[in-house]
Amino acid sequence: MSEIAVVAISIAKPGYEEQLRAALEGIVAPSRADRGALQYDLHRDLREPRRFVFYERWESEDALAGHAQSAHIAAYRQAVADWIEHSEIRVLRKIA
Questions:
Q1: Which positions fall inside the ABM domain (predicted)?
Q2: Which domains does the chain have, with CATH numbers?
């Protein structure tokens, strides 16, 4: 299997920006320690401060699946369920 990239976008509901930011920052270290993690970087949109974007690189789709099923991601999803207006995840394979 070959390396994949992920772009994950979360938009906070108005008034929940800082709670979501803290929760997102809290999953960075454990996610970087997940098997197969090559890069796991959190960004905040300069023009839309409610929008947070992860850029991730994983050794394989299996590594990403393991991350998605990890305890820290499950806990994160439960904690932020009421704080997110919209989320989107794109799984990408480099072609050039």
A1: 4-92
A2: 4-92 (3.30.70.100)
